[in-house]
Amino acid sequence: MDLSAKRHQLRNATIYQIFPRNYSVAGNLNAITKDLPRLSDLGIDFIYLLPIHPIGEKDRKGKMGSPYSIKDYRAIAPDLGTIQDFDTLVREAHNLDIKIMMDVVFNHTSRDSVLLSEHPDWFYLKDGKPANRVGDWSDIADLDFSKPELRQYLIDTLIFWVKRGVDGFRCDVAPIIPIDFWIE
Known about the structure:
This protein has 184 residues and is an alpha/beta fold. 35% of the residues lie in helices and 15% in strands. The chain is built from seven helices and eight strands. The chain has helices at 3-11, 20-23, 29-41, 83-95, 114-118, 148-163, 179-183, and strands spanning 15-18, 46-49, 99-104, 108-110, 125-126, 129-130, 140-142, 168-171. The strands form three sheets. It has a four-stranded parallel β-sheet with strand order 1-2-3-8. A two-stranded antiparallel ribbon has the order 4-7. Strands 5-6 form a two-stranded antiparallel sheet.
């Protein structure tokens, strides 16, 4: 299929967005997997999963926190299930010719993220402390894209999910991230 045909096919695809915690009474990945036959009958081409990663606890907004305040880019939030549950969802969706798309939130992490703990030098600093550039996003710390190691980690994170069968990504606040990262 040539590029023009692929673009036309994507333009006409039906994308079904799911916030897993509110999708069902169970609020987990297994509930989505069980519902795949119904979604297939609806003619869904893609399932777009909003963030499925563990939510940070430090400076958390509200009781649950924001799913965009991510603690670990390469993990599944325990309340949603396990990485094996995710793999099953992807496999079963693919068996029904449904593709899986997921949110990537690469502008920032939670203030207690794995990356902030392991690589504090990968973060934007204000007055010597990890900070964010958007005032009301007080539960997150922005990443510093001048760090080549950070860029490689994020690229490797995309590869990690692609190897698990993810077919596409929606990039949260993509315009805030330097365009040269996306090109890279």
